[in-house]
Input
Amino acid sequence: MTSLRNSRKGLWAAACILLSFVFIMTVRAAEPKPGGTLVFGTENEFAGFDALKTRGFAVCDAIANAVIHERLFEWDENGELLPVLGLSAALSDDRKVWTITLRKGVSFHDGTPFTADAVVAHWARLLKPENRFSGRDTITPILSVEKVDAFTVRFVLAHPWLPFLETLCDGRTLAPFIPSPKAVAEDKQSRAPVGTGPFMFKEWLSGDRFVLVRNPGYWKPGKPHLDGIVFKPMPDHQTRYASLESGQTDMIWTDRGGTIEKAEKDERMVHYVSEGTGAEIFILNTAKPPLDDPLVRRALAHAWNQQVCVTLSYQDCIPFVEHPFGVDTRCGDVGYRAHDYEKARELIAAYGKPVEIECLHSNTKRGREQGELLQQFAKQIGVTVNPVGMSFGPVVKKVVTGQYQVSTWRIPSYRDQGPSLYSAFHSKSRRNWSGYRSEEMDRLLVEQNTETDQARRNALLCEIASRINEDVPLIYRGGRRFHVLAKQEVKGSSRFQNGIFALSDLWLDRQPE
Amino acid sequence: MNPPSEIPPAAGRKSFSEALGESFWLSAIWLVCVIFFAVTADLWPLAEYDHMNWESPAAPPGTEIHAEIPGGGRPVEMKKVSLLGTDTMGRDILARLIFGARTSLAIGLVTPCIGMVIGGLLGMMAGFYRGRTEAVIVAVMDVILAFPGLVFLLAITFILGPGLDHIILALGLLTIPAFTRVARANTLRCARLEFVQSARMLGQSDIGILVQEILPNVIWPMIVYALLVVSYMIVAEGALSFLGLGVPAPTPSWGAMIAEGKEVLDKAPHVSLIPAMVMFLTVLSFNIMGDCLRRAVHPKEEQL
Amino acid sequence: MSALGKRALHLFLVVFAASSVTFLMVDLLPGDAAYQIAGDTATLEDVQAIREELGLNRSLVLRYMNWLADVARGDLGVSYLTREPVREAIMARLPVTIELMIAAQLIALVLSVPAGIYSGYRPRSCIDRILGSTSFAVMSIPVFVMALVLIYLFALKLGWLPATGYVPLSADPVANIRSMLLPALSIALVEWVPLMRVLRSDMIDTLHEDYILMARSKGLPTHTILFRHALRPSLFTLVTLFGIQVGHLIGGALIVETIFALPGIGRLLIGAIFSRDIIVVQGCILFIAVAYVAVNFLVDISYTLLDPRIRRGGGGWLTAPHIR
Output
């Protein structure tokens, strides 16, 4: 007994010492340690960093992009505007001119000073019609960008436009980030990007690594803490997680429930989550029989069980959604067509003809699951669905040229969904791939674009979501939610907005090797 | 090539079936079972192979699931114990295994046959005639080998459309070069042997020499290789099905079932391992049968 | 024509045929690179403009001729998608692919040759049966499952080897070998089976040849018979398959490269095929075709080493049909 008691005492003492040690460590740990290189495991190889030339700019690309380049403004966790390269933004009385003052004393990695000329050159390049900037449909209200003086620029709009700053500073696209005019002129920006950010491009070994080093002349004093960041494309998510466990990476991107579940059980890991806007969808071709009949589309929508898709195929790592504005946006009842076989069978009976549909999906395991799920649900209401797996290019070709019936598709994750909804559903839009035509929808889309009252505009957007659910040009497969897994040692930030984890302020709490 | 006088008396007295040995019969029983179930799959009270149980994905063997039993009209839904568990989409593994046997056996068996017949013929011609014939055949085979198989499969699927027959055809054509080279190598090896030369002296025709003298020496290495290609092809089809190049959904196949289980390998290894096991036993059975047959045909081996 | 000249002609024809057929077929597939580049925010005008910019709207023959002319000048072109020079992309990935191939095939040989010899020497013995069933069991486990099991075992449980990644040989030779072990083993565990099985089968055949029986009756020791007399003539099929496997691995081991995040040719080629990045596909094919021809040439030479009488047959009596 005594020996046991003694050993217990010993244990207590050890625990106390350990605890105080931990306490000292945590106090000390609050102080960022400089140095170290962070290794980030991404899902894909980067596409490039030139706003005009780079297409297929994915979310992991955006994470890397945001530490090399900077925007005029950012938002903090509470949605307050943070000055970055821009210091202040003022709107004219007629709400058609934005005047933005710029930060002084900043220079690009190549030594070029950051001035109004860099901003104007960048935006003029994007706005020039001949350049066919891929995002031009979402910035149509911007007429021109002018230099006022060396550190002031003016954006002139065609009409009052509420989501101006949201669009101007959306981290998910390349346009808001100001590149070095010299690198752009020399056509190097795509593969050797030059910006003003805390990290500078060092090398890019295709398929293997994308290496960034600390920018010693960064304008924020004392930042960044890390010596460098290495991005490694790791296409297989199971081994990406294994490499986090066994120490080849410090942080990984993931979209698999299985790995998230494991990380949550593992005390060495931290799981960061960011809610996103947009949605994973099936796009329906409303211009082609039998889906030109709303009865068939509504029947499919009722047959489809989004919850099962989210649970079974996505292992609950994305949310169930009724509209594309993100789970944080409340729209009330938007008339979502819930899973209901009886209703679906009634609708298909009202249509009266046998229905057979081809469903395009991406040639991955998850893509195949989506096709099989739709096939299975449709079978219950007597509709035949033939899933066809294809790689990205051919799917795009079929959808863009209207030679499809149903295809997996996506509503991109933008801070403001207005412009992207406009280009997806306005009858005159060149990107209306579902071929959806509705006067009511056109009216709503135009109104939300010019509405100047935030609350009224939000109501209009919700009404658009209701119309989508009413006429079913798309079926939601799930919303967007983004996940990053990191080791405990990775400290300093949890700013994770719309899929972009801010790596700029991170530091590593471990002994230098 | 084995004069009967060389057969030792002990082996000679054994009946043919005795010479095959019991492992042969065990293998045969397994294969007959697999083929029997594959053929009569529709007659058994199995769960529908494409019916998904949302509540129980990747359930372990013995879980009770809701199964739809195909009846006269609308399928009858009832509770049923899933003997081998369910896959990641909650479908009954047993039902998928049995229906998948049709697809996988067709791919696994027909594909190497295409390669063996065409490749064997070309390889024997190349090794026997040599000269220009050989140069042309070798060049064509090098081209096929260097040509990315995936492009060929994509092209076949695009031109002929998806479907089991097209996949078998395409995969079969892709196996030809390997068989050609194996056949050529062995033809080269045995064409200089005395019996071939003497046959030539005796004025036997080329076809006669190829069939009677060379084929028996080339056929075993080819069969040994072909039996290995069986499992290669079954697995390959699984990988292809995720690229949209396999058998169209919802038709199951062993390869796709094995590949699907990769995601849950740590949580539910049975999803991958049960089909892999069935494939293993099947391929092993083919190989044991091949080996035993060969011994029964060449009883001389018993001497060693 | 000299033997060397013949080889050069063969090489040229194979490369030309492989590249032109690939060009034709990739072009035939639906959805060209322009759709891939334009992406899901494309408009038809965008696609047209990109096509114009890349020269995709010119005729097939013209584009192929253009490519040939560039290659003749030593320029493999620039990727449509990433704008990366193709020669750089291939050169960057070459060390990984070649190292992986060598390591995998070495392991496969080390496993298969002794196993094949013993199994052929004592067929249907206990060890032969064990080797046989294990090899088929290993073959029934697809590479991607095998790789995950190996990672789980050696990287996570035992912590001996890194789970993923590639370290260049020049940077750190030890780390390089460590990073290559698991990928090479995953490939070798599948590749050794065919080698072992064909060696076993050929060994069984050879051991029944009269000269072996004669050597045996003379009382030569078993190891002399096996290694001196029986092994060489039994290697024909093994060497042939070995050559095909090597060629195959030079074209990249896609699954292993993907799982272990290795920057090899396989990922480059498949990515290019799916995105219809024809310039990259062509660059890879060029390289792979040359590699195949070279490897198969070496295999053919090895036949004459295995049995010197074969070379004599080249232009001599085996072309007899005409003489007779």
Summary: Chain C touches chain B through 79 residues (CB under 8 Å).
